[in-house]
Amino acid sequence: MFEGVQKQYFKRTRSRGYDLFFAKDNDAAREQAKCFLFAGDGLEQYGERRVCILKDQGFVLKYSKPSRWNVRLRNGLRLKRSGKNCLANEFSNLAKLVKSELSPNVHGYVQKKRFGLLFEELLVVEYFANSRTISERIQADGDDPEAVLVRVLQLFSKMLSTGFVHLDPHPGNILITADGELKFVDFEGCCFDIPEDAFCLAFCLGRLYRFWFKEFLSEARYDAAVSTFMLHEYPAETTSGYFYSVYAAFKYSDTSRKQCYQYFSKVRARETFIARCVSTYKK
To answer: Between residues 197 and 241, which one has the greater pLDDT?
Structure first.
């Protein structure tokens, strides 16, 4: 089911009909997952989705139990081309970033199937104590939005140099840890076969503003910060090509997760979208 780098760090075991994939040196995470799933107090209380934060143990448990058969089939077979997300995708994505400083450590993943359909799944990831999302740092703690934005722009640059694109880069999915480091969370949507930097940055910067940095900073100040960053870090992508047209499209238009996934996974869809952006938005 999981190939490549995952096999280097994770061991598969079975227990009570569950498949467990856990880091080879992390018995504590595996036992915590078993306690959660086998407690006998009825997981029905959690509904389809549940996130449990175990601060003392340093774990975040993300639980999912799809109710619709088509979702259970799609996620059980991991039909990723659909553009839909699931915890199996997040485990696979985080396993590829096991050595990255930009993501939480993934401790393990559990799934159970019935009649070939996914019945339930559980993901165990690292908990960052005393961390805050950038939304919380700006709204509750009073951090300067422009200063936070400059740090996020550098985070996007590090992301590209690491070789991935987070497909849901909004302020609630970016943490500032107690040590002051910026990290992404929620990796159900992620791309590793990334296109040109210009497209990736236009996507991230446009989406970041629309969902929901526009609540914190005026468009003029946001655009000025983006222009300064692009001219300094990516001058070739800024002075020629389609960057500003695609940036404007993601900033002003609603694009679904499915559409975004298609733009990153299918060359023809991306080229058609870029052409439409260039004809619609001109710098």
So the answer is: 197
